[in-house]
Design brief:
Blueprint lengths: L2 H8 L3 H10 L17 H15 L4 H25 L1
Helix pairs in contact: 1-3, 3-4
Length: 85
């Protein structure tokens, strides 16, 4: 999915997505053969979370830290559940 489609799906602008890339809040997605960014569903989900958090007044840099913390907690829980099997 190209940046304009990703922006429409996440409810933000392509400019905001590029800002998230520059600040490190959103990793660069792989590029297609023609050089366009190729956004996937997990990128869109992260964009929606970032957009929601920043609209609530949290700076993008803090929003990224919150997402990383939540992701770490989820990964830890997944590892715990795998060990319980």
């Amino acid at each position: 999915m190209r940046i304009s489609d990703a922006a429409a799906a996440a409810g933000c602008s392509p400019r905001m997505i590029r800002y998230y890339h520059r600040t490190g809040a959103l990793p660069e997605p792989p590029r297609s053969s023609n050089g366009y960014r190729d956004y996937r569903l997990d990128d869109i989900a992260r964009l929606i979370r970032l957009t929601t958090i920043t609209r609530a007044g949290v700076p993008a840099s803090a929003a990224d830290a919150d997402l990383q913390e939540a992701l770490t907690a989820v990964e830890t829980r997944i590892d715990q559940l795998r060990l319980q099997r």
